[in-house]
Design a protein that fits this description.
Number of strands: 5
Structural class: mainly alpha
Strand order of the largest sheet: 3-4-5
Order of helices and strands: HHHEEEEE
CATH topology of one domain: Glycoprotein, Type 4 Pilin
Radius of gyration: 39 Å
Helix content: 25-40%
Shape: elongated
CATH class of one domain: Alpha Beta
Distance between the termini: 126 Å
Length: 201
């Protein structure tokens, strides 16, 4: 009976060495879920310049979007104010048809406060009471209602424009009334942006 000749020592593959080789091969597999960190040569990352470029682009796009949204809001507020001034003027004409005079204030705001729409509240109350027929929207009518405002157009007992300021109003009762919105402007430099019931020069 012949005895098999064992392989040379350097050709032997020990069980533990074989297991270690398999484990190493698995570890170095690119998509191995058990390897939390890849060697630094395999990792892909943003450089600082790329990151700054992305942040800059996002900032520019955000600025353009917000600027466009602001312009749309301003345009919408202007259109709303023009419609409301025209509606108030029409209501005043209906009031005149029944009473042969317009809601009367006989005074313009004080010259020192004409650019401050907060000073329009007193005359605004006169206009409101005459057109709505009561001192507030929730009170019972004491006279005919000539104008049905939206709740957003009313603050207490006067009309407000889309910027939240009282509408300006003046009439001597005989001549067509002056109705205007300051369009959010509070100084003389912004009068060219006012929205008025009279044609601008």
């Amino acid at each position: 009976m012949t005895t098999p000749t064992p392989p040379p020592f350097h050709q032997k593959i020990f069980t533990h060495a074989k297991s270690a080789k398999v484990a190493t091969d698995i570890y170095l597999t690119k998509n191995n879920p058990f390897r939390p960190l890849r060697p630094w040569r395999e990792q892909s990352a943003f450089t600082l310049i790329e990151l700054l470029a992305v942040i800059t682009i996002i900032g520019i796009l955000a600025g353009l979007t917000l600027g466009a949204a602001g312009a749309v809001r301003r345009h919408g507020a202007t259109s709303t104010a023009k419609a409301e001034v025209a509606a108030l003027q029409a209501a005043c004409d209906r009031y005149y048809a029944d009473n042969n005079l317009y809601p009367t204030t006989n005074s313009m705001p004080d010259p020192s406060s004409i650019f401050n729409p907060d000073k329009y509240k007193t005359v605004g109350q006169v206009l409101f009471t005459n057109l709505v027929g009561s001192t507030t929207l929730s009170n019972a009518l004491t006279s005919k209602r000539y104008f049905e405002p939206k709740p957003a157009m009313v603050s207490g007992n006067y009309f407000i424009d889309p910027w939240g300021y009282a509408y300006g109003y003046n009439s001597d009762g005989t001549n067509a009334p002056l109705i205007w919105s300051t369009a959010g402007q509070t100084n003389q430099a912004g009068t060219n942006k006012w929205i008025t019931s009279w044609p601008k020069m």
